[in-house]
Amino acid sequence: MKITIAPEILENYPGTHIGWLYACVVVEEKNDYVEALKKNLPRIVQEHGLFKTEELSKHPRIANWRKIYSDMGVKPSSYRCSLEALLRRVIKGENIWNISSVVDCYNCVSVMTLLPMGAYDVHKLKGDLTLRYGKEGEIFLPLGSGEEITVKGTHIVYADEEKICCWLWNHRDSRLCAVTTYTKEALFFVDAAQESDAPDVEKALDLLSCHLEAIGCKVRAKGIINKATPQALDV
């Protein structure tokens, strides 16, 4: 499998750095180690200087993602990047996500590092994976919903050779390639869209590796693609 950032994305967002990590995973409904991570998140978010949801849009990283979402032609206050959605839940003190050990784990690391993350079941992917602009009329099948979303050419998506795996860069995953308790191998992504965030991508991959290993997963490979190296071969 190849992982590629399309030239058009790099033309418009030259600071894009995408971290990727391949792992053999053990997915449980719940894990005590991950539950402990979740309990620490309110403190970590406050250490980032985030105390109120109204302040989120002023944070440089969230502000940049909001601009990108505006560029994609959607309202950023209605369609949020995955990081902002997670931060809002932590700040509000709502029940923090309870999906599975692996998904909860990378969501925790996303909040810790202030970088959006995602993951797909490797065996549900077909061919190569690309971060690209959508094609008019493509259909996206969102996780947790029976609806169908018609994609526009301004929308940025992760897509394999037969389907869209994530819509609006990192807003929502597809139900066709989601990580479940049956997943044995997963491909994780860390998103950064500006050069100033690039140094944290490698740190985020290392932290994700550490926490995945702590819950019984085995990291097999990881790397970063960007303008200088826009493609990872033989992942």
From TrEMBL:
InterPro entries: B3/B4_tRNA-bd, Phe-tRNA_synthase-like_B3/B4
The name this protein goes by in its record: B3/B4 domain-containing protein (DNA/RNA-binding domain of Phe-tRNA-synthetase)
Gene3D superfamilies named in the record: Phenylalanyl-trna Synthetase, Chain B, domain 3
UniProt domain B3/B4 tRNA-binding: residue ranges: 63-217
Transmembrane segments: none
SUPFAM superfamilies linked: PheT/TilS domain (SSF56037)
Pfam families: B3_4 (PF03483)
Gene source species: Acetomicrobium flavidum
